[in-house]
Amino acid sequence: MISSEQNVWPAGDVTRVPFWIYTDDEIYRKEQESIYLGPVWNYLCLEAEIPKSGDYCTAFVGDMPVVVTRGPDGGVNAFENRCSHRGSLLALKQRGNAKDFVCVYHAWRHDIKGNLLSVAFSRGVNGEGGMPPDFNVCNHGPRKLRVTTLGGLVFGTLSDETPPIEEYLGEPILARLNRVLRNKPLRIYGGYTQVLKHNWKLYFENIKDSYHSSILHTFFATFKVSRLSQGGGLIVSDSGAHHCSYSLVHQGGADKEFDQEKLRSNMEQEFKLQDKSLLEVEDEFNDDTRAQAVTIFPGFVLQTVHNTIAVRHIQPKGPNETHLKWTMIGFEDDSERLQDMRMKQANLAGPAGFVSMEDGAIGGFVRRGSAAADKESTVVLMGGMSTSSSNSRATEGAIRGFWKAYRSYLGI
Amino acid sequence: MNDTTTDRTSLSAALAELMEDYARAIDRDELERWPDFFETKCIYKVTNRENVAAGYPIGVIYANSRAMLQDRVMSLRDANIYEDQCYRHLLGRPFITHTDGDTVHAETSFLVMRTMQDGVTSVFATGSYHDVLSVTTERIRFVERIVVCDSARIDTLMALPL
Questions:
Q1: Summary count for chain B: helices (H), strands (E)
Q2: Which residue, A321, A390, A353, is CA-closest to A22?
């Protein structure tokens, strides 16, 4: 791959995105340093995954493996899943309950917060060997993350400069998150991981792209789950980094705009569900909003479509692979009817989702289509050049916002 | 060989034939036949070992009626966008865990290879079908088919059912 040193960002600010940004090895390395290990809040897990003292799960901050634990004081801790001695993993399982973490390699023992407690044979054997007398366990141990929780979500940062999460997100985005989470205890319904064979940014852009949803996702538009002609809006944070798009309940009637565009998705007369229960909706947030996606830079998505609620974590795995970890959630006090609806409507989301299976494939189509286009750029002009919020979703404002933030983190 | 063994052997053979026909319907792109393997009221779910171990109810696909399966076929044919692809199911022998009157509980291992447009064939999924079947002299149908994938990872998307 061409080194980014030879590449400069094309003219046109954030309305042109160069294709080398998705494939360059050096850019990937810079992202790890400047974004994931930098002043951002990385999504780690749900508090509901580690409810009891000693519970732990493993997570990723970019390439960095992380252990997230629940301490005896009820607090959440996170530290690098790496023994500071020789670098082996400390937690080998994805989740469990532990009193401490003992490295399997040389038995260096750590407490639940990631503090190194003891080193095997530190005084040697039979008076020989051992660590130097000035070796102090307090000066060793894996890197710790600063942790914050928000409505049952756990975030971590390696940087002292990351502002409090409320400030990081800004009030409008925070409000759209709280609209769903409401500080209610979460229930996990299930999960899976989608393996995408393309760069993480292509997927993040796809979620921020409110223009494509009713065009690519025929199911979405056919059943009026989301159409651009419906009421709704797009909120972009001041930094550009985070966004929310939402659509309101469809008021019924024909859509002149959709007729004029002759879209595949306007053929509902011939397309009727035999089991209509899939499209029943309970207005659980009492605001007529039917679909919403909130993103938190650099890799978190909270999506609600009807009554299905999904957390998606975008995990980069090299320039050309991304893991999308889905966790389907609801609340501990879900009524039986809501539980039922969440089960059925889970069919809308995920790798087999009626309205989202295309999202897994489209980034791959872009990667394959642009294989020889390192010196070309994408065109991001829908809705003008601004990165501001808008009442229309026929815009690429949130994508431009992403690039504005991205470029400021990377200094390019 | 006593009667019970004979019955069991012929039931096992009948189940194996059903499983093969089910796989053929998907592998030969005869998806319209797929819902007919199920009772009107039925459960079809694709999930993974992690969800089962954690007691999480949701899978990648969930249907609680044959109509929902028919809707999925219609959506795949008319609405969803995905690259043309085909599956090759390789099935183990159905293992009958227990029978209860006309209801049979069985488990069958599967390996599904997927071939994409560029000609690449790869292992798409391995796992086990956990089935509850209604058996009459005329036919056998799924009352419940829980597809438990060994891995929680899915490559790109799951368009066709397992």
A1: 3, 8
A2: A321
Residues in chain B closer than 8 A to A194 (CB atoms): 153-154, 156-157
User: Mean per-residue pLDDT for B14-41?
Assistant: 98
* A120-to-A11, A86, A298 alpha-carbon distances in Å: 58, 13, 39
Angle at A214 between CA A213 and CA A217, to 5 degrees: 70
Going A268 to A271 to A276 to A282, the CA torsion angle's sign is negative
Are residues B79 and A271, on separate chains, in Cβ contact within 8 Å?
yes
3-state SS track over B141-159: EEEEEEEEECCCEEECCCC
pLDDT tens-place string over residues B2-15 = 567 778 889 999 99
How far is residue A227 from each of residues A289, A299, A307, measured CA to CA in Å? 13, 25, 18
Assigned token pair, B155: 């490559």
Contacts of A273 in chain B (CB under 8 A): 67, 71, 74
**In this complex, which of A94, A190, A357 lies closest to B82 when CB atoms are compared?**
A357
* In the predicted structure, residue A167 carries a pLDDT above the cut 80: yes
Mean pLDDT lowest for which of A248-252, A265-269, B72-76, B107-111?
A: A265-269
Q: What angle do CA A276, A280, A284 make, to 5 degrees?
A: 170
Identify which of A222, A323, A352 has the shortest CB distance to residue B61: A352
Whole-angstrom CA distances from A222 to A267, A371, B79 are 7, 33, 9
Closest CA to B45 of B103, B121, B130: B130
pLDDT band at residue A258 using 50, 70 and 90 as cut-offs = low
What's the confidence (pLDDT) of residue A357?
A: 87
Provide the token pair at B98: 């227990």
CB contact B54 to A (< 8 Å) = yes
Lowest-pLDDT choice from A255-259, A363-367, B5-9? A255-259
- Residue B55's CB is within 10 A of a number of other CB atoms, namely 8
Q: SS3 for A406?
A: helix
- Residue B6 pLDDT: 74
Residue to mutate among B26, B58, B151, with most A CBs inside 10 A, is: B58
| A175–chain B Cβ distance below 8 A for any pair | no
C-alpha distance from B12 to closest chain A C-alpha (Å): 32
Alpha-helical runs (H) found in A183-324: 200-208, 213-216, 218-222, 256-261
State the pTM of this model: 0.94
Contacts of B148 in chain A (CB under 8 A): none
Of A68, A60, A61, give the one whose Cα is nearest residue A98. A68
Q: Which residues contact B120 (CB under 8 A, 6 or more apart)?
A: none
| Residue of A192, A218, A273 lying closest to B152 (CB–CB) | A192
CB of B10 within 8 Å of any CB in chain A? no
Q: Kindly tell me if the per-residue pLDDT of A372 is higher than 70.
A: yes
* Residue B27 confidence (pLDDT): 98
DSSP per residue over A55-66, as a string? Answer: EEEEEEETTEEE
Cα A119 to Cα A105, A124, A126, A396, distances in angstroms: 11, 10, 16, 54
Q: Is B153 on the interface with A (CB under 8 A)?
A: yes
